[in-house]
User: Which sequence fits this backbone?
């Protein structure tokens, strides 16, 4: 799963590693294998670099994470072409950073830190170039990469109308029923309605935060974000404890746009952040969609402006899927698995064995028959769908034709 | 104003005229000049041919109206390639026709019959090819050609929602305030709201009927259609007294589409007549526009389907005008007159003299100062706008820069 772009990072990490033995403050790192040094350096960098900083991203690409981090700790020359004031500011921040403590904090939350090159890294984020996240802090059971393969962003106004909330909730549920993940920003209004609609349909939803994964914002969404962490995924570029800022909200939107196959705007005033997300999606070659509304509402104006330009009008989840499902380059076609069955983990294998050869059954029956917790079952089934083993039909699941033969999978056979 | 296409008709009429002296039933026609014979034949044909019959339209183009009419009266060979059953049916209809009586009936209603080649003929109807109307029966004061130069069609569902009626009324008023004529079909729902909104703003509105101009349909719109006849224009392809039929409604829509620079659909279910009008407009190279609505309404579905295809999303009269006003080939630019002032009629001249050299005034003051009835004043001012002498600013009117010099127009000068 290592992309070509990651290779220099790894090499940089290995070649620079011995030089770090002289630094008391990084004791213990040198004992780890190169990928772990890489991971620690990236974790540290998420606390020092602001999301979306493509100047620092270029340093990271050229130097590799370990050398860049060492440089920010004052060990070695500053990055080539770096401004003095910027370097001084970053070095001041770097002094107090303890990536081990951040990684421990994430683990305590049941979370993890996912880096470029990891199996779970969503490679479509590489489209952000030097503004690609340094790494992603993740809470939740599911595999982020697999969920994101079939995902759509639903965004819109915080102060949405009843109509906007209704539409967002209906689209979230409809996308879930069609086996698509719904990505949003956990904000009030359209974001919240989209997450809730997806959760209510037992579907996969991903909240991308502009703070650390443990810093709940807005506080009114404490319960909702808790449910997403249980049933879905919470992800953030910033390390645990980090607070959101205005620019972090803006940069968060680029992750939502890049992670998904398309962005749907439900209600948005002119010059709103949701429009910026949609335009970013268009720049990244993703689908840009808008749900129209009454022309008498100011919250329709931004969406309608988008629909007069780059966006396609969508009125239902079926229309969204018809559009974003038309490209087959990110996810395997719904015709059977592309991965050998032998490579699946034991839980996935157990779930596949609980599915009948013909016909569809409820996730709750699959959970019971396989002896797996319902939430684990649901998260895993959406991963298996992304891998082409199963498909969702409304609220039920069925095996896809090729699921038996792939990797020699047989059930009840001789 | 005679187009090249009309010339053969005229010649055909003159050359065939003497031969008609032997027909008792057409007594008196031969005494008229050729254009009058032509006009009488066309008036007769509107009672015999169904609107939109492009087979008969091809006969008309090849034979001219007088020869075709004679042929349908059994005088001469049937049109080349005509089916026997069709000819027999048309001849049966032709027996009882008295175009003189129809023209007299129109005159009694304060109406007239406008033919291709007449100064008042809207030449954009020629885009319909052989399906061009044979002629148009017209009620109302204004000059149809001038009003139609700057016109937009507003169409939509008969059983529209409050939202649709509100939007249609607002668009009608907004278009009128910007000096545009609103064309619709006088039906219940969106059509009625569009006419009413335009009338309420003192604007020019044209109702295209699928019956004779004196046959009010629907009967619930008796008062509305009466007001349109007073303040606007009522036009029809069918002669006085004719009833509407399903196919006549469909054919009426092609006239709405062809007459205007663009068609706006306000609310429409899937597979509705309004969508057919909009698609016809697109085929004719006119602008096709749709006003979006809540995706939760079935009456938005047709419009949204259109917006996913050929139509442009519009949310206000300003956006409609921005689009349709961008082509300058039909109407003179709003920079001054293209016609010498000497060629204007006395009423128009009087109205221009009542306008101040600078600044805008209400139509009611222009009417008072010039001693002209308000309704005549309003109708004539929109004609003068189409000719480039004046422009409307909200509810007021002002002279355009070149209005003084054109044709040596001076006021109060030596």
Assistant:
């Amino acid at each position: 799963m290592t992309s070509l772009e990651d290779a220099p990072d790894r090499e940089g990490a290995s070649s620079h590693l011995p030089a770090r033995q002289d630094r008391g403050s990084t004791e213990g790192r040198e004992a780890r294998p190169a990928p772990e040094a890489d991971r620690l350096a990236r974790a540290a960098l998420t606390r020092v670099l602001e999301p979306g900083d493509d100047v620092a991203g270029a340093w990271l690409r050229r130097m590799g994470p370990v050398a860049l981090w060492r440089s920010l700790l004052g060990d070695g020359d500053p990055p080539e072409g770096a401004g003095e004031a910027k370097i001084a500011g970053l070095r001041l921040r770097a002094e107090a950073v303890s990536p081990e403590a951040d990684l421990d904090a994430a683990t305590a939350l049941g979370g993890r830190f996912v880096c470029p090159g990891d199996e779970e890294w969503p490679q479509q984020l590489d489209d952000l170039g030097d503004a690609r996240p340094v790494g992603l802090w993740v809470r939740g059971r599911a595999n982020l990469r697999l969920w994101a393969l079939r995902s759509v962003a639903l965004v819109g106004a915080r102060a949405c109308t009843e109509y906007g909330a209704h539409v967002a909730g209906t689209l979230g549920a409809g996308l879930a029923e069609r086996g698509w993940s719904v990505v949003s920003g956990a904000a009030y209004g359209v974001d919240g309605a989209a997450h809730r609609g997806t959760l209510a349909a037992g579907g996969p939803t991903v909240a991308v935060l502009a703070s650390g994964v443990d810093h709940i914002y807005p506080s009114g969404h404490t319960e909702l974000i808790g449910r997403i962490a249980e049933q879905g995924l919470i992800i953030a570029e910033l390390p645990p404890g980090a607070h959101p800022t205005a620019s972090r909200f803006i940069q968060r939107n680029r992750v939502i746009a890049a992670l998904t196959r398309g962005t749907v705007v439900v209600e948005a005033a002119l010059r709103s952040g949701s429009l910026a997300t949609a335009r970013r999606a268009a720049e990244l070659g993703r689908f840009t969609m808008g749900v129209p509304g009454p022309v008498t509402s100011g919250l329709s104006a931004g969406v309608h402006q988008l629909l007069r330009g780059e966006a396609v009008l969508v009125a239902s989840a079926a229309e969204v899927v018809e559009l974003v499902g038309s490209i087959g380059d990110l996810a395997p076609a719904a015709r059977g698995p592309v991965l050998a069955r032998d490579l699946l983990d034991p839980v996935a294998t157990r779930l596949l064995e609980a599915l009948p050869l013909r016909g569809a059954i409820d996730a709750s029956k699959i959970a019971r028959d396989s002896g797996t917790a319902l939430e684990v079952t649901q998260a895993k089934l959406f991963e298996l769908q992304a891998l082409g083993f199963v498909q969702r039909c409304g609220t039920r699941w069925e095996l896809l034709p090729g699921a038996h033969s792939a990797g020699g999978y047989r059930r009840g056979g001789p």
Summary: Chain A has three domains: 6-97, 135-324, 341-408.
